[in-house]
Amino acid sequence: MGTASFLKSAQALLRIRNQLVRECLAELLAVFVLILITLSGSAQMVTSSSTKGNVLTAYLAGALAVMVAIHTAGGVSGAHLNPAFSLAMCLLEQFPWWKFPIFVAVQTLGAFVSAGAVYALYYDAIWHYSNGTLAASGPRETASIFATYPADYLSLSNGFLDQVMGTALLIVGILAILDTRNKAVPKGLEPVAVALLVFSIEVSMGSNCGCPMNPARDFGPRLFTFVAGWGVEVFRWVERRGRGRGWQG
């Protein structure tokens, strides 16, 4: 009886009543889950030289990660997961502008922390594969585990168009799925529909830049690689940088 009373008291003490804090924590956890699975899929592929994964398994991991992340935070924060989606909601007047910078900061923080978790998880594999050098280009680069980089042939203008078009298609697709005036997705299967949307975009538009479609997903882990020792090169656009895997994300 005493133990039950103590647990109830502890639960009441730890319960978060502020709605904004609840939404931020939900968004943080959901983005952490999203990036943890997504980057782990890339890490497994890269560090095993594609013997324990390939581009399709990496894309599938990323798509399923979206589904899990939506289930994680959908009921609390709406599972934005993506600054681009938060911005679209603001433009459609379905999300207050004052929350936008807060959500962007939380989403980016979640991605940064998750990148650190993936680095810890694959620490031995990364250092073994890279022969002890953290590089953002060359045959043994490992930066593409965490962020997306352009293929050798891609120009800056074509890369910009690639990202705008892919992200726009993602937002339009999500809005269509959530629009009750359309042919409705069976209730509870919206996360599955969004995951399939993400997978379809990745397998059809991923070769140029890796199809991140999410500024927080790309910038947070990219910032982590800069801090962790990959150097300032992770922020540079260099055509024909000697990379053979521009599609990886």
Fold topology:
Layout: H1 2-14, H2 19-47, H3 55-73, H4 83-91, H5 100-121, H6 123-129, H7 156-178, H8 190-205, H9 215-230
Helix pairs in contact: 2-3, 2-5, 3-8, 4-5, 5-9, 7-8
Key attributes of the depicted protein:
about 250 residues, mainly alpha, Glycerol uptake facilitator protein, about 60% helix, MIP
Task: Provide a concise account of the structure shown.
With 249 residues, this protein is mainly α. The chain is built from nine helices and no strands. Helix 2 packs parallel to helix 5, helix 3 (55-73) packs antiparallel against helix 8 and helix 5 packs across helix 9 (215-230).
The count of domains is 1
Q: Helix and strand string, N-terminal first?
A: HHHHHHHHH
Tell me, what's the shape?
A: globular
Give the CA-CA distance, first to last residue: 52 Å
The residue ranges in which pLDDT falls below 50 over 5 or more consecutive positions are 242-249
The fraction of residues in strands falls at under 5%
Query: Looking at CATH, which topology would you report?
Result: Glycerol uptake facilitator protein
Structural category is mainly alpha
Please count the helical segments. Answer: 9
Mean pLDDT: 89
CATH top level assignment: Mainly Alpha
Label the CATH architecture. Answer: Up-down Bundle
Helix content: 55-70%
Cα-atom radius of gyration: 19 Å
Q: How many strands, which pairing sense, and closed or not: the largest β-sheet?
A: none
Any idea what the CATH superfamily is called? Glycerol uptake facilitator protein
What's the total count of β strands?
A: 0
Catalytic activity: H2O(in) = H2O(out); urea(in) = urea(out); glycerol(in) = glycerol(out)
Subunit structure: Homotetramer; each monomer provides an independent glycerol/water pore. Could also exist in other oligomeric states.
Keywords: Cell membrane, Glycoprotein, Membrane, Repeat, Transmembrane, Transmembrane helix, Transport
Subcellular location: Cell membrane
